[in-house]
Amino acid sequence: MNPMGRKRICIALFGGTGERFGAPYPKQFISIAGEPLLVIPLKALSACPEIDEIHVVSEPMTKNDVYNLIIAHQIKKTKAVISGGASRQQSVYAALEYLDNQGVAYDDLIMIVDGDHDEVII
Fold first, then answer.
1. In Å, how far are 8, 26, 39 from 21, measured between CA atoms?
2. Pairing mode of beta strands 120-121, 109-114
């Protein structure tokens, strides 16, 4: 937690189905340098001292696969794998609603990362 007492929370979106990618499975599961694509940014986020916890949003059908990869790769700051919606906006809403139900403070900082892109929304 930062000196101001606020949690710094990352919502990492990995909700794709692979349809636009043209693969029979979501691109977050392709192997890059021996690791699934989703593991690479999650390890980097977990290693970042400015992030206190990570909440991963996944396509509901792959939620267990995502969870198992997080456990297998020991991504320590991950607190939850949340089922996403049909669009990026619905997935963000689902994550924010989850955090609200978990009692996130009004002044906690939330960063949203699109796991399959280079975009960061703060």
1. 32, 8, 18
2. antiparallel
In 3-state terms the chain splits into helix, strand, coil percentages (rounded to 5) of: 30, 25, 45
**Among 7-11, 20-24, 78-82, where is mean pLDDT lowest?**
20-24
Alpha-carbon distance 49 to 4, whole Å? 15
CB 29 within 8 A of CB 65: yes
Distance, in Å, from the CA atom of 104 to the CA atom of 7, rounded to the nearest integer, reads 8
pLDDT at 32 over 50: yes
Widest pairwise Cα distance in the chain: 46
Phi, psi of 78 (to 5 degrees): -70, 125
**Rounded Cα gap, residues 77 and 80, in angstroms:** 9
- Which of 63, 77, 79 lies closest to 15 in space, CA to CA? 63
Distance of alpha carbon 28 from alpha carbon 39, whole angstroms: 8
Burial 15-38 (b: 16+ CB within 10 A, else e): bbebeeeeeeebbbbeeeeeebbb
